[in-house]
Design goal:
1 helix; about 95% helix; mainly alpha
Amino acid sequence: MGGRFWLTVIGSVIGLCIAGFLFFTLFAKAWQAWGALGALIGAMLLVYGIAYLVDRRATRDQES
């Protein structure tokens, strides 16, 4: 395991920490603005949107 591997691991961890921070910050603001149910619906819509985009990409790659 060379230096490139560890730089990739460290970069991935930092990126995931930043993404998690942004997600939880936005979730907390949605909770404050819309309440628990609104925040959960918003989070599920975000997850559904990401899954939809990933599925479209996989379908497009599979057709090619």
